[in-house]
Structure formats: C-alpha cells, structure tokens
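FORM 7B: Structural annotation worksheet

SECTION A. Query
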Amino acid sequence: MQPMAGQDLLHTQPRPMHWLATATAISAVVAAASFVQPPDATATTTPAATGGHPAAAPDPSRVTFPVDCGPNRLDVVKKASGDLDGDGTTETVAVVRCHSGMGSPPSGVYVLAQPGGRRAAPRIVATLLAPAQQRSVQTLAIKDGAISAAVLGYSTRDVPRCCPDVRKSVKWQWKGGKFVQSELPAAVSTRRV
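SECTION B. Predicted structure
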C-alpha cells in the first residue's frame, strides 16, 4: 500500500489540541450567531413553531374555584377562550355558580391561565366578578382580546332573588397590566328580564 501524498506532514495528523481549537472556534461562531437576530424576531411560541397546533386553552374542570357551595356542587356554566393579554398564549374565562334547582344563584367570573407545563393544573389569574357581588352572567364572549358579558342583577333588596330586574352589558380588557371593566353604552335597563 502506497502512503497518500502529504500523510507524513504534521498538520494532517489531528492531535487533542487540534480538536480543542476546532471546538473552540465552532463555539465562538454559535455564540456570535445567537446575538445576530432579524429585527422582527420574538420569543413567543406561535402555532407554526409548535407544529401548527396552538396551545390548548386552560380547562376549567381542572381548577379549584374559591366558591363555597356548601353541600351543592359547583357548575361551570359558560366558558370562552382567547389571547386576552397579547402574549401569544390562550387564556380561558370561566363563569361558575353553585348548582341550584331554581332561582338565580350568583356567578363568579374567573380568568384562567395554563402554567408552563401541560401537566400542571391551570390557575386563576384574575377574578372579574365575585359571587359576593350577587350578579348572574347571562352571556359571555371574547372578541379581539376583550371579554364581554351580559350581567343580571337586582335594583333593590326587595326584588325576589329568582327574578333579576337589572341588565348591564360590561366589557373587561387588559390594560396597564390588569383587567379594566367598562360598561357598554345604552345597555343598562331597569326592567324585568
């Protein structure tokens, strides 16, 4: 067998120092590349980055809500999902109330977020309407990051708890790091509903 041309040259014989120099050079290139980003690069997860599947919305059935129903069960009566704070993740708004065979038990409206791992239970990140406020939610929707609801209540303590007589349309929107409530115009009526 005839030796290859140049086989006996020192620079053609790799030694540990050669591999160390090569590894250092490659590391320097990779590190430098991490500082060079396109101007529109973001760190949020998009459906394309997750294989075309958006992250699942938090499931209200996996949450323990701060509502005491005594011997009755707690019902999730409405839910809607969407990106409420513009961070690219999906939140869920859940309307809950104690189970009742009749009457209009008060509702609680909660915003749920899913922590980093899918195995972790969702958590409540905001209370929009507490049951102690004695209101019932008739409708719930999310559009363009805003939550809207028709809320029923009572004009006086003399109105029977079965029959709310005030209807307000309200909206909650993420502003300045919190949910801000506003009343939608011309939606207030004091009448039997």
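SECTION C. Observations
The radius of gyration is 29 Å. The beta strands are 74-82, 91-98, 107-113, 123-129, 136-143, 146-153, 166-175, 178-183, 189-190.

SECTION D. Sign-off
Analyst initials: ____
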